[in-house]
Design a protein that fits this description.
Length: 198
Amino acid sequence: MRTLILASTSSARRALMDGLGLPYRAESPGVEEDVSPTLSAREAVQVLAGRKAKAVHARHPEAWVLGADQLVEVQGEVLSKPPDREAAKRQLGKLLGQTHDICTGVCLLGPGGHIAEAVEVSRLTFYPVRDEELERYLDLGEWQGCAGSYRVEGAGQALLARLEGDRTNVQGLPMLTVVRMLRDAGFPFFERPEPLKP
């Protein structure tokens, strides 16, 4: 049986993978997430997704490893995870009333040097909201651990005026892309789990 490892401990990514019903486990890649500031968001997420997948694959060379990373780009500026509430407020201030791109890089590594890579981009437009509404949203803490400081799978969807692209991409893992990669790699879907041996 093939071993599939998600090189991420993100709860949003795990929830999306759980929905596939495909056996897998999650493992922290434990890598440095700094990249050159000269890279665009699209380039940076590809580098980081590959870095995460390679780190876990080096520990489990016979496994299939799926790595992913996500960044937001608004008017040429790349936004990563905010370190604190004040940074989150600044990020959201740049997004409210504006249109931005959310970019997710995905890398699938398998035994024998198999590699598949892709970058998925979705475009979002946020409502312009008043300061007191922004403060209430920040109070929810959804900004923690999220590039761009919001979660569309949570209360943050109320910020969303328009979405172009794959919604699962915005949630952290573009499942149309992931399924295509797994199918191309020969993964079977909809199989019944094997009963545990006594």
